[in-house]
Amino acid sequence: MGLGRSGLACAKILHNLKAEVEVTDNQDNPAIRQALAQLQERGIKVEVGRHSQDSLKDKDLVVISPGVDARCPILSWAEELGVPIISEIELGWLLCSGTIIAITGSSGKTTVTTLLGEVFRSAKRNVFVLGNIGTPLTSQVDQINDGDIVCLEVSSFQLERTMGFRPKVAVMLNFNRNHLDRHRDMQEYLEAKKKIFANQDESDYLVLNAEDPVLSGLKDEASSKAVFFRSTRKYNPNQAAVVATAGLFGISQTHCDSVFAGFKGIEHRLEYVSEVAGVTFINDSKSTLVESTVWAIKNISQPIILIAGGRDKGLDYSGIVEVAKKKVKEVILIGEARDKIRQAIKSDFSVTDASNLSEAVWIAFQKAKSGECVLLSPMCASFDMFSDYEERGRVFKDIVREISQKVYEPQS
Fold first, then answer.
1. What is the pLDDT of residues 91-144, one digit of tens each?
2. Phi and psi dihedrals of 131, rounded to 5?
3. pTM for the whole thing?
4. Considering the domain 89-262 in this protein, what is its CATH number?
5. Residues carrying CATH 3.40.1190.10, the chain
6. Partners of 306 in the beta sheet?
7. What CATH number belongs to 5-83?
């Protein structure tokens, strides 16, 4: 169920295993049609534009993509029929021969997953970096062998429908207000996160943030061995989590340090794009939390014109005010959440609306002076205007290139 990256990968691996596969997706767009064509070549039946009860007839198992809402009616129909429902990472785990390190948290997951992969790769370990980071586990699970390491980024959406999922190492980075557009409340969100260690035993490890008041107490709920990390003068929380996790596999802090020194960051996370007429452009499209944008602002030394907005996830945007007042000159708002953000910050900032991202970037450039920074750090999901944060970030970079060309093109 669901024909995004995860659904497509699931359908292919199950078909390779000689299962009788059918796929259903309630959307119908060019990306879905492209995936549909790949499956129809294999003779797989695909239903698009709706979820029908007929699609559940005579089924033994339903595998859902993370984008499928837990309250989708077809899941209720499946439950009434007694058809088991599992998530894509559950299927991947069932088929995986390697050692899984699963990383979750409200923020920092992609950075830690990427860094861990680099650490293991540098230590000459055969490693796969998969999951919510962009490459589904099921897309490469048939290539993973005994002794291989899998650094697996997992979200609460992916964990919701796990049953037996049991990583050798579970890493929980932090727990902040997030995804309340999908989860009923913070407790339901936490319960989904806790499924990362629910099936572990005393031979497994649970790596926890000692500085997070919610997570630090979870050791008493887990059967696995608890390992704590905390930030220091030398390590930020993400680096500390990597050092603690790598240490479980005999990799030294010194080795981690060498990897950290050469790490150039990840695309769409505080990514330097360009400097045009003295104005720096930073792509932080991956920021879908207030805390992530606060982190970005803290790590930029220049005065900032902030572009924010998108689809609201039930967040409290006033949490940005204290840090942003010190650096942010003006805020340009886009997307569905702009009215909510404006109400939260209007007494502290000059706020301008834009109808789309292109208009927002041009307005920000016109307002910025040489030596200042235009920062895209939305604090929101992208789905009101883009397919995902990656598309949003790519579009931002395209707009910046367009601005650069117009500023620097030869005058006739």
1. 999 999 999 999 999 888 999 999 999 999 999 999 999 998 889 999 999 999
2. 100, -145
3. 0.79
4. 3.40.1190.10
5. 89-262
6. 331, 375
7. 3.40.50.720
